[in-house]
Design brief:
The complex is a heterodimer. By secondary structure, chain A is mostly helical. Helix content of chain A is about 65%, strand content about 0%. The longest helix of chain A is centred in the middle third of the chain and has 33 residues. In chain B, strands 2-1-10-5-6 form a five-stranded mixed β-sheet. In chain B, strands 3, 4, 7, 8 and 9 form a five-stranded antiparallel β-sheet that branches. Classes of the chains: A mainly alpha, B alpha+beta. At the A-B interface, helix 1, helix 2, helix 3 and helix 4 of A face helix 1, helix 3, helix 4, helix 5 and helix 6 of B.
Chain lengths: ~170, ~400
């Protein structure tokens, strides 16, 4: 079996890869050229929104995910996966639905815009996720309990090692 | 215990090796990244199609068929952008530790330059990816908090994003292909520290297995689509708890700009309303009764909005080409439409192939009823395979160019 490359970006780039990078730089440059004639006011705002997205992700979202990961790692082992799945799905649904349930673009004269009962959706989502996590977690807890009660080895052969606490 | 507390509250900046989860790996990043790349490619291609449809006088005429073409491409644009949100979040999570990689030694200037270029292109890729998904989702719910023109900025930044993505592919190609060739649980490609991870060392037990995370990512992307796409995929309506539009409205079609917002209520409902038709031979005004006395045609055509919602309707009215034939206007001519609406989309030019298409109507009825005031009463343009913003409502005149 071949040895996988370890530091991919450090291996000598082939002509094909070099050309790909040049092509990408050209496409990127075209985008910058398209932006260039915009008024400076627009460019400022675009720059602020570009930077703000990175800061909000790299500091707030990533920070919260590390924090929640640390909390999940303190739960009993069989419960961790269901809780993590519930948190991820809940966060994704919250993110993609924010413009709708926030109703920021609502217009009083247009009843066909933002015309879904988002409160019902939020309640349904939370109920389904909480129920799903609870059922799955209790089932796994009972299974793990039975496994130890039967005198067998712990359900997970790697049970002795704890994960790093950053995750 | 003290080690655990110290790791939780570090007194130094974090390092890549602090992130020990085996999920943060090239195996996961390459797979989720590939799915994300496909979603971005679909967004880019469908975005180019939309841009083409909205370009005046393109060097290649936009086709008038299939009539549902724009409905599908623009629906796909918003659906794949929505699916990309969880894909991007998981992708960024899986490589987050690289943010804390130590800078290269200043004694190796070539390495410093390469690192600056590589990290700069990744910064642009991440920034433009987040930016496009955020403003795109906001736009689909008519939420415009940025104070710039959406269309031109979203278009320009899409080229920046795709360019940075192509650079990223060129740089990472060997790692991506290696990751796909190896089993997802193979840990020899992992790059948390300097040395590659030894396969014999058991992975620290985490929360999910890698396959579990990949499945979860797929479920999250599918959920994001199902919960929001009901405004364009009628079959998904019952499950779309968070669609920006239910997809319903007067005559079964939602409204973008109301008559009140367009300030046309008085003029559109005036008894004196007439449609003025200007040709090289002169000018002729058609009252609503005269338009209704002409042969009426029925066509099933969608309204497909750039925001991603769409709905099909049964329109009835005067065939545009038939009307022009009656006035002896030759084929192959563009027509300029003016609306009673003086701001916004008040004036549009319909390319010749749309003018000559037999499905293009000056619509008077929708779903068996006279047009609702908000749908463009007394008369609106409806053409096949056309962005909704150009289906001009509250027509006041048309001019053969």
């Amino acid at each position: 079996m071949s040895t996988p490359p370890t530091g991919a970006s450090r291996s000598r780039p082939s002509i094909g890869r070099s050309l790909t990078v040049v092509l990408g730089a050209g496409v990127l440059g075209y985008g910058v050229l398209l932006l260039a004639p915009e008024p400076s006011d627009t460019l400022w705002r675009v720059g602020i929104w570009l930077a703000a997205g990175v800061v909000v992700h790299d500091v707030v979202i990533a920070g919260l995910s590390i924090l929640l990961g640390a909390v999940v790692l303190r739960l009993p082992r069989p419960v961790r996966a269901p809780v993590a799945v519930g948190l991820v799905l809940g966060a994704v649904v919250a993110a993609v639905s924010l413009p709708a349930w926030g109703r920021f673009g609502a217009k009083a004269d247009n009843p066909t815009l933002l015309d879904v009962d988002y409160r019902l959706g939020a309640i349904l989502t939370v109920v389904i996720l909480v129920l799903g996590v609870a059922v799955s977690a209790s089932w796994r807890l009972r299974r793990a309990h039975r496994a130890t009660a039967d005198g067998g080895p712990a359900a997970d052969p790697r049970a002795g090692r704890e994960a790093g606490e950053w995750d | 215990m003290s080690g655990r507390v110290r790791a939780l509250v570090p007194v130094r900046p974090p390092r890549p090796e602090d992130f020990t989860s085996p999920l943060r790996s090239p195996a996961v990043a390459a797979r989720v990244g590939t799915w994300l790349g496909v979603a971005f490619a679909v967004c880019f291609v469908t975005g180019l199609i939309s841009h083409w449809a909205r370009t005046p006088d393109p060097w290649l005429a936009f086709p008038t068929r299939p009539a549902w073409g724009y409905r599908v491409t623009q629906g796909l644009h918003v659906v794949s952008g929505t699916a990309a949100v969880p894909l991007l979040l998981v992708k960024l999570w899986s490589v987050y530790h690289h943010l804390f990689a130590p800078p290269p030694s200043l004694r190796d200037p070539r390495r410093v330059l390469v690192t600056i270029a590589e990290r700069g292109s990744i910064a642009l890729l991440v920034a433009s990816s987040i930016f496009q998904l955020v403003i795109g989702l906001q736009n689909s719910a008519q939420w415009y908090p940025w104070g710039f023109d959406f269309r031109s900025v979203h278009y320009a930044v899409s080229w920046v994003l795709i360019g940075a993505l192509v650079i990223h592919l060129g740089v990472k190609w060997p790692l991506i292909t290696a990751a796909w060739r190896h089993d997802v649980d193979d840990r020899r490609l992992d790059q948390h520290g300097e040395a590659p991870t030894d396969d014999d060392v058991p992975a620290p037990a985490g929360v999910l297995e890698r396959r579990g995370l990949l499945r979860l990512t797929g479920v999250a992307a599918a959920s994001a689509v199902v919960l929001t796409a009901g405004g364009t995929v009628p079959a998904l309506r019952p499950f779309s708890l968070f669609a920006a539009r239910s997809g319903d409205g007067p005559g079964g079609i939602p409204i973008n700009t109301t008559a009140r917002a367009a300030r046309v209520v008085g003029n559109a409902t005036a008894a004196s309303w007439a449609l003025t038709v200007r040709t090289s031979a002169g000018e002729r005004a058609f009252s609503l009764a005269e338009l209704r006395s002409l042969p009426q045609r029925t066509r099933t055509l969608p309204i497909a909005c750039v925001e991603g919602w769409s709905a099909s309707g049964e329109w009835r009215g005067v065939g545009l080409r038939e009307l022009l034939d009656g006035l002896e206007v030759p084929r192959g001519r563009e027509v300029r439409f003016r609306s009673l609406q003086l701001s916004g989309r008040g004036v549009t030019v319909l390319p010749a192939d749309f003018v000559d298409d037999d499905a293009t109507l000056l619509a008077l009825d929708l779903d068996g009823e006279p047009l609702a005031l908000d749908h463009g009463f007394p008369c609106r343009l409806i053409a096949p395979n056309r962005p909704g913003v150009y289906q001009t409502k509250w027509l006041s005149s048309l001019e053969v160019l």
